[in-house]
Amino acid sequence: MSVIRTEPRLDRRTAILDAAEEQFAKHGYDGVTLRAIAKHAGVDVALPNYYFGPKRDLFDAVLLRRAEILNQARLEQLDACLVESERSPTVEAIIRAYLRPMLTGDHVREEGWKNYYALIAYVNNSPEWGGKLMTQFFDPLIERFIDALRLALPGIEDRDLYWAYHCLSGALTLTFAQTGRIDSLSGGLCHSSDLEDAYEHMVRFTAAGFESFRAEASSKKKGRP
Amino acid sequence: MSVIRTEPRLDRRTAILDAAEEQFAKHGYDGVTLRAIAKHAGVDVALPNYYFGPKRDLFDAVLLRRAEILNQARLEQLDACLVESERSPTVEAIIRAYLRPMLTGDHVREEGWKNYYALIAYVNNSPEWGGKLMTQFFDPLIERFIDALRLALPGIEDRDLYWAYHCLSGALTLTFAQTGRIDSLSGGLCHSSDLEDAYEHMVRFTAAGFESFRAEASSKKKGRP
DNA sequence: GGCCAATTTCAACAATTGTTGAAAAAGAAG
DNA sequence: CTTCTTTTTCAACAATTGTTGAAATTGGCC
Questions:
Q1: For position A1, what pLDDT does the model report?
Q2: Intervals of chain B under pLDDT 50
Q3: Can you give the distance from the CA of residue A10 to the C1' of nucleotide C1 in angstroms?
Q4: pLDDT in the model for residue B215
Q5: I need a labelling partner for A225 at 20 to 30 A (CA). Which of A110, B111, B163, B208 fits?
Q6: Residue (of B97, B174, B195) closest to A126 by Cα position
């Protein structure tokens, strides 16, 4: 009987990362104590420090762990989308490439990914770290998507493009925060937890939003008719 | 010489609320100490507790103070929009009624309002309080806007409508978080602090998003062509 | 077994947390 | 002035924070 023996070192490490991920996502950076993390991970209080150094470094480690995986998955989707369309992708296809990795495979099944996305939502909206950390971990990839969108919307002005992405990012962020607000607002008609439903609606909504900035002769100014 | 003599009691109260508003907005609930608030307000550590009770009650007091003012302003805009259009408003007009109060008058000039909106952004994306607090403070008014949007988009399905509002809320939230991320992402082309610019882009983007859910014969299902 | 390094535990640290009760000061009213 | 209430200060509280260094344990290798 060949028991799979994962090294205890890695077990503890990932247990700490998992616990930290969950706690940070739920209560924010300052709302979490190392003792709470240690307790959830089933380890001693001093162990997080032994592996990751000070609290802040643990936070970064949590953020970094899945960022690379997510970026990789997104990049593959984008490349596939570009190849498939012979470099003439539709806006909708690009948005789907951007969002789909978050709703397929392990990302939907594993609790860890759910926590991670909630954490990203927290970071993205944090005035303290939003600018810095999101830029650091995700913006290089975002540039690729911006380029693709520019391809799909020839003649669009860059300022419009960036603001449109900003709107997409905001909608996505709020979705993954999973606050349950839409549940009560809609009287139980919609559910924060139904990511599939959220996905389809976000795609449609934001695709139309991007399209609205297509370069056209008129309607560039803001005045109402 | 008639010096305006505001009652010191109110001065201290509002000084505490202002300081708390700023600190909570910048660092979140747990990232702020009562001592930091007291110091910024220029009062003793014990005074916040004297006026507002425990820390959590102070937080609620901060949230409540401007919520009523904002809701009132939004309601006026919505009513004016409905009257002006003889109950056939456009989607864009409704969205403008929803967003405009945040960009006119004191709301743009006063630092306090800026902090308040950043705080709302924090709350709206908080898994801990997002559902509860936003519902409590804002959802009664949101229902009015939902009704107006239903009027402007006859035949739209309610589920689509709520998800569309969700997207709008997310974009708005990220805008007011003012993280500076779009500044670096766009290479200085756009600025988080340029709320006028953000406003016009959000209106256009989200109006198109809502319109995309207009009841139509086809394209109800999600499959790609 | 013994040896060495990596890992884990334990206890304690200084600093900081929210909160409180009593004392002090300020204001109002007579 | 005196008297009473409201407001403000002060000092202290128990609890909790992140972090650390030394001791204890474990694991691999000879």
A1: 31
A2: 1-6, 217-225
A3: 30
A4: 73
A5: B163
A6: B174
The reply to whether the CB atom of residue A12 sits less than 7 A from any atom in nucleic acid chain C is yes
pLDDT at B216: 66
3-state class (DSSP) for residue A110: coil
Confidence class for position A172, pLDDT limits 50, 70, 90: very high
pLDDT for A116-160, tens place per residue? 999 999 999 999 988 899 999 999 999 999 999 999 999 999 999
What pLDDT band is residue A28 in, cutting at 50, 70 and 90? very high
* Interatomic CA distance for residues A59 and B104, integer angstroms: 39
Instruction: Report the distance separating Cα A139 and Cα A2, nearest Å.
Output: 44
Q: How many CB atoms lie within 10 A of CB B138?
A: 21
Alpha-carbon distance A206 to A93, whole Å? Answer: 12
Q: What is the pLDDT of residues A100-113, one digit of tens each?
A: 998 887 777 788 99
Q: Which positions 94-123 of A are in contact with B (Cβ < 8 Å)?
A: 118, 121-122
List of chain B residues whose C-beta atoms are within 8 Å of the C-beta of residue A165:
185
- For the cut 50, the answer to whether the pLDDT of residue A200 exceeds it is yes
How far apart are the C-alpha atoms of A153 and A145, rounded to whole Å? 12
| CA angle at B111 for the pair A128 and B127, rounded to the nearest 5° | 40
Q: Are A37 and A16 in contact (CB under 8 A)?
A: yes
Query: Do A44 and A38 form a contact (C-beta atoms < 8 A)?
Result: yes
User: Tokens at residue B88, please?
Assistant: 């056939």
How far apart CA B127 and CA A114 sit, in angstroms, is: 12
Give A120 CA → C17 C1' in Å: 28
The CA dihedral of A33, A34, A35, A37, to the nearest 10 degrees, is: 100
